[in-house]
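As a warm-up, study this chain.
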Amino acid sequence: MKKITIAIDGFSSTGKSTLAKQLAKHLGYVYVDTGAMYRAVALFAMQKGYISSSNFDKQALINDISNIKLHFEFNADLGFAEMFLNDVNVEKEIRTIEVSSFVSKVAEVSEVRAKLVEQQKAMGKNKAIVMDGRDIGTVVFPDAELKIFMTASAETRAQRRFDELQAKGDNVSYEDVLKNVQERDYIDTHRDDSPLVIADDAIEIDNSYLSREEQFAAVLELVEEIINQ
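Now compare it with the structure written out below.
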């Protein structure tokens, strides 16, 4: 069967990772969550004191970037690969609202993007991969056979994220989550290096009123059309 590269881009909390995991599992493809990689770098910056609510020492992070080692390890019980930062499982730590508030700022740093994009390109050299993020179809895999761009209203995305955090026991307010979503949208679309844009040949999906099952079925149909050409 023909192996392809599937690039999924879009705004935060649009369910990119959920869709990517579904596709990868169904197709037997490798799944890579690039957002987790940027979150891990943000966590590293937080741990080192390079970033806080009042300060961001970009140069200190750049100087220390060679000491950031990232890799994924598949967890059979969970059914997906977890993020490791310098050989420590940080999957839970990188999903907090605090990391979310810093990740877009860290992702603006060109040196960080260059390091991670290089790794991401290497991961996809043999195709049969589903990767989601902000610049997958435009920068990492501009020649991907299928490019999806996912969107939904900020309010819908904030509600999804709020429900997710509440289910994990995190004490957050909907207003704070909405503010975080809106701030990330602005930073992601206005940064100088690889801003979030829709690739010319991407298929846009607004999933504000789609269930996960409906979305998966629609995208799987697109995949099968390409594979069976």
